Amino acid sequence: MAPKGKAGTKGKKQIFEENRETLRFYLRVILGASAVYAVVNLVIFYPAASAWTWLAFVFSSVVYGASYRSMSSMAKPAFTDDGSLADGGIDLNMEQGMAEHLKDVILLTAIVQVLSCFSLYIWYFWLLAPGRALYLLWVNILGPWFTAESSPAAQEPNEKKQRRQERRQMKRF
Predict the structure, then answer these.
(1) What pLDDT, in 10s, does the model give residues 98-116?
(2) What is the DSSP letter of 77?
(3) What is the pLDDT of residues 11-61, one digit of tens each?
(4) Cα–Cα distance between 136 and 131 in angstroms, integer?
(5) 47, 58, 90, 103: which has the fewest Cβ within 10 Å?
(6) Is residue 40 a contact partner of residue 113, using CB atoms and an 8 Å limit?
(7) d(C-alpha 15, C-alpha 91), whole Å
(8) 41 near 57, Cβ under 8 Å?
């Protein structure tokens, strides 16, 4: 059963601690997936490693670096002159935030990277990331913009209807 009333807010210190734990967790995911990929493809199967294997490793490293750096800059805390916490940074565990999408990119890349130890064709699953980005772009920005009725001709009848309804209500009173 859901608690009644307003949802509790987090304090600066709690956000700071949770952000630190979140960054630590995703760093472990990044290092673990990269280590598995490097050991399997670039050490054990080194003779079979092609340029595509190295390209995939470099690509995943760039994606990891950009995502992790963005998350760490969002979670950067601010301290006062006396050393106390002034701001805990942006909450990385907030739902529907940019950090959530960055965490999804890191997890998708880690899963694809580990599974690609079996076949390089698994990297095609990484196309889910730009597909999701295009979907969010359409749903949140482009779709409403294209379907919005902003022509003055369409707004005038609504204003006329509103005036008519106001007159009717005035007659009733």
Answers:
(1) 889 999 999 999 999 999 9
(2) -
(3) 888 888 888 999 999 999 999 999 999 999 888 877 777 888 889 999 999
(4) 9
(5) 47
(6) no
(7) 6
(8) yes
